[in-house]
What we know:
Two copies of one chain form a homodimer. By secondary structure, chain A is of the alpha+beta class. Chain A has 14 helices and 23 strands. The first copy, chain A, folds into three domains: 271 residues, Bira Bifunctional Protein, Domain 2 (BirA Bifunctional Protein, domain 2), CATH 3.30.930.10; 96 residues, Rossmann fold (3-Layer(aba) Sandwich), CATH 3.40.50.800; 72 residues, 2-Layer Sandwich (Translation Initiation Factor IF3), CATH 3.30.110.30. Chains A, B: Catalyzes the attachment of proline to tRNA(Pro) in a two-step reaction: proline is first activated by ATP to form Pro-AMP and then transferred to the acceptor end of tRNA(Pro).
Amino acid sequence: MAEKKFVEEITSMEDDFAQWYTDVVKKAELTGYTQVKGFMVIKPAGYAIWENIQHELDRRFKETGVENVYLPCLIPESLLNKEKEHVEGFAPEVAWVTYGGTQQLEERMCVRPTSETLFSDFYAKDVHSYRDLPRLYNQWCSVVRWEKTTRPFLRSREFLWQEGHTIHATAKEAEDRTTQMLNLYADFLEQFLAIPVVRGQKTEKEKFAGAVATYTVEALMHDGKALQCGTSHNFGDGFARAYGIQFVDKDNTQKYVYQTSWGMTTRLIGAIIMVHGDNSGLKLPPLVAPVQVMVIPVQQKKEGVLDKAEELKRVLTSAGIRARLDDADKSPGWKFSDQEMRGIPVRVEIGPKDIEKGQCVIVRRDTREKIVAPLEGIADKVKEVLDQIQHDMYENARARRDAMTYTATTKEEFTEIANTKPGFIKAMWCGDVACENAIKDELGGVTSRCIPFRQEHLSDTCVWCGRPAKKMVYWGKAY
Amino acid sequence: MAEKKFVEEITSMEDDFAQWYTDVVKKAELTGYTQVKGFMVIKPAGYAIWENIQHELDRRFKETGVENVYLPCLIPESLLNKEKEHVEGFAPEVAWVTYGGTQQLEERMCVRPTSETLFSDFYAKDVHSYRDLPRLYNQWCSVVRWEKTTRPFLRSREFLWQEGHTIHATAKEAEDRTTQMLNLYADFLEQFLAIPVVRGQKTEKEKFAGAVATYTVEALMHDGKALQCGTSHNFGDGFARAYGIQFVDKDNTQKYVYQTSWGMTTRLIGAIIMVHGDNSGLKLPPLVAPVQVMVIPVQQKKEGVLDKAEELKRVLTSAGIRARLDDADKSPGWKFSDQEMRGIPVRVEIGPKDIEKGQCVIVRRDTREKIVAPLEGIADKVKEVLDQIQHDMYENARARRDAMTYTATTKEEFTEIANTKPGFIKAMWCGDVACENAIKDELGGVTSRCIPFRQEHLSDTCVWCGRPAKKMVYWGKAY
């Protein structure tokens, strides 16, 4: 069989970022296809990343008292219609079920695009007293939104996610939970996925359909486009009033609950690819990597080499490292490229000369640095390298993000940056949606990404209209 | 607040088994309702059981080389229609999506009732060479089947499950995988859920739509009705031929793959309730119980009692036991009933006198046995009790199942048992579907549950028609 080097096969990201992305997704075997248009198949290498994300997020959720539940996948139209802004936001993009078996339904039902309406209906029936509050429920499921153009992980007619839906006795508790979950998302992204984010609030124009306030974590991709990585919404008592979620409070009066929701999706896999990847393929942070170390024997047909490589893998595995051995009948060079394409953070090379010297060679995926290390104590050394990679990948992503974050104080400056420098633009804003609309129209799709919690005073006036500024905003083109 | 004893509120299973079941599901807070008819909400206490089932099954799957994936939730009609027997089995009970947003779809799509068709389409595109085989994929998801009458966990328009779909180069490999997974299911049920099962093959009449052979694990509920707890199907090359799943074999010729599928569902929660429960409520085997031990303080307002109870909980938790403390402002008696209703396998009572003596009282949920134990070394003692409960619950369920398993060698005997004694009936069968149909019609719904792997020779002739017998069959009424 002819050995092809994967590295020769992918488009470079500088030439065509979109094609590079598609190539990585395909060559790293993250997704596959069926004839169901606009829907993706998540293959084992992609799904294992999602499992690690799920496991870590779920653990963090539960530490804050969240419990998992499961609600129906279909929503009757009348239920969807109860909250006016919400239905306007979602009705145009849902899939409608009209027949059950051979019978036409009396009322059509949509495949859930999100489940605020169902949780509201459920809570209205299930909650009676202040003793029943708060309710901190979450579900892991898939949702369907009838997108016109789709891309694996980034925009798909179906995606996997978690959606948390909580209800509280007071407005303050709901607001506290909304920001708590936003900060949980931010910490998860930075600590686990090594993705630096800007934490902030969405403008009125960009907030979720039906929310009083939407908070977001925004990351910057390699091409300078922003990706919204998670959102947390405070609904106030809007849904509670629309769906009648009431409770008897301590003072013996009927009150409406205050509600939140928050979600993260398989889109995160797209973020990992576009924040960390390079022209050799995927680059996974060690904590989320399904395989952290690939042991690759050199001259594996020589006596004792495969045995030693197998033993090395066992030593690493016993120490809790997710290690595998590539003993396929292929050249080491082919295996190196393959391991790099799949984003495995570390490879350990071992050949006859290494065995003679009682050593092996650790090669970092992120920097390509080669570290000759004694076999004695190898597991500790590999753990140290994995920790270092996790740390460095975050720092590098942050340095790149910072280098691609610009400041504009005038319309001209803003326009020039938007037209020539991909990245975030920090600029003051008057708070008027008219400026947001004009910016989007005139600068080819630049939108307000968020009003960051960490405000800076860049100037006194709105970068677009010159009226007094109210807030500093992160702007950018987004996925 | 008035304290009600839960035990007074549920129907006894001898009076009305169906109502008892409904009461337990409700009082143990396993499910809830929305206005989506026929669909269930799985509440935290129910979902936590499912999570433990998932975790253990997933671990066992992966040990055999299975990998998780995710495929689309919608199936285009033309794709569903490709395998004739399969579509005839499922088309009458699927939900049809006809609109995406405001646009009528060119081709309607059903919400997946099962995913053989999708996996076949995917594999046909993804597999090319014998080197790509076997593929051992599984997915965790929900499916929709438009049932007319529904009951929580047992029959619902949507349920959660796992569906494994594997393809192989040879018929033998596929057959081996089919029985391997069936045995994995049986071991899981017996070891983890303490549910004894009969392993066997479905008759032609009862097998899965499109399968060459369907294997099943059948359990007996408290009321003497059978519940199919898991199935494993060998499809031969039927789907491969219908969907064109071919590969180039080592001999350089194109061949069709051989295929299997196997699934377990949230129905297992219904099985746990109906095999183990009693008139005090749910009774969970320790291995699957989300909470294994409830620490209940007695005279908790006396100084030092709550502190000691809290310390006891911490000691148990540190030892890896899933323990909680019930420090609510309610009487111990109320808490005991509550813990029993929820099926928590062990409670530990501790009051001022116990503290004085350096002891506590362990009470088993299954036998109500009280064990006075010193606080010194309490975690080991509780572990020992939990192990014993797990063991005893299985043995008790098996003894009950065996006591409710009858043997019939004549039509008269068969009829009499079917009409008077709920349970399994073992009887010889000629192999003719006409006898199965007649038995079902004349004995009020008695069906062949399976042809057990462990055959017994009960007589020479079919219990119904008197012709020569081919196999011994387990018969019974089923959920």
